Amino acid sequence: MSVLGFGLSIEPQLWALVFVMVRIGAAFIAAPVFGAVSVPVMVRVTLSGAIGFLVLATHQVVPPAQVFSAATILAIAAEALVGLAMGFVLQIAFAAPMLASEVIGISMGIGFANAIDPQNGRSSPALGQFFSIMLTLLFLSVNGHLVLVEMIVKSYDVMPVGAAWMGAEQLKGIAFFGGYTFLAGLLLALPVGFLLLCLNLVVGMLSRSAPALNLFAVGLPASLAVGVIALAMAFPAMGDYMLVIIREALAATQNLVLG
């Protein structure tokens, strides 16, 4: 009877752990670094379970009375929506370097240089991979992954399990933060992009004044050389702005969860 009683008492805790892991796992699927293709699924599940134990230790979580019911399915969908929204906001910010690389790469003449991105497993510009790796390293250096885990745990205070539906204002905030990607990407590419634009104007005027001049033989090597030198000179400032992008993304995630 004692063994039977222990089994009956441990089953609700297991269901509560699985219920809590839905939000955490959804956030890890959508968030950068955690959601990379190179991160095994077993690692994500293990991390979700470890953080789930932390949530159960600090919050009172009541599992659903019936597993296969409409209310339980809606509650699980709400938990997944909250987790996906938290990770998606950070993913939006990580798209800014890709936009900057497109602007710079086309001006430099290396927009055709693509490679497989280890983060998402898709083909992306080589310059964009360099920016993405630097942004990821800066994100880890400022403990952004720990801040994300902290916000996930704190989200259970504002959005308890089973009552975590997101309002229209929160969804509106996600949509408006999507515009920040274009702003951040253009500002990140502004120093190098403006210099390359000036170079293209000069090459265009030279081609008009000397029609016999081979534009591709002169303009493409000049754009590539000036672009590499400009990147080397402007990267300290670009690194500082990448930190601003990370802070804005974490602040947007905090506003989404905590208000």
From TrEMBL:
Coiled coil: none
Gene Ontology biological-process annotations: bacterial-type flagellum assembly; protein targeting
Alphabetically ordered keywords of this record: Bacterial flagellum, Cell membrane, Cell projection, Cilium, Flagellum, Membrane, Transmembrane, Transmembrane helix
Gene Ontology cellular component list: bacterial-type flagellum basal body; plasma membrane
Pfam families, A to Z: Bac_export_1
Intracellular or extracellular location(s): Cell membrane; Bacterial flagellum basal body
Membrane topology category: Multi-pass membrane protein
Task performed by this protein: Role in flagellar biosynthesis.
Name of the featured protein: Flagellar biosynthetic protein FliR
Organism encoding this protein: Sphingomonas alpina
